[in-house]
Design a protein that fits this description.
The structure is a single chain. The protein is an alpha+beta fold. It has two helices and four strands. The protein has helices at 8-30, 41-69, and strands at residues 74-76, 83-94, 100-110, 115-117. The chain has a four-stranded antiparallel β-sheet, covered by helices on one side. The protein is elongated, with a radius of gyration of 21 Å. The mean pLDDT is 87.
Amino acid sequence: MTSVQPTPEDIRKIRELATEWGKVVARRAFGPQGPGLNVNLSVMEELALEVSRGLVEGTLHTLLEQQAQTLGTEHPCPDCQRLCPVQREPRTLRLKGGHQIQQGEPFCHCPDCRRDFFPPPARPRPGRPRL
């Protein structure tokens, strides 16, 4: 499994994509004619903030779910090495700006040792150090 870090150019292009989606949202919210003169900046800003929260929530949910799927279905207990199923537990993530989202966090429980543990990330490729 390779680890891909987006480049500054990738991030710029993604932001441009989000800008285009903002135009779609504006048309969906106010129609093709846009907001009337009775809609003030405060209302438009609140809409934009809710859209950005939804975009952040959807992006993080998808990325965290993709990471979790790489864990597999079982992991050995760090103490006794018994294979334990990977389960999910709800967790509240507090994001920058105070926004909170719910996410299912992977964890394992060993019935022999009676302990919970978090499964380790995927093993690095041979010759690659674990940081």
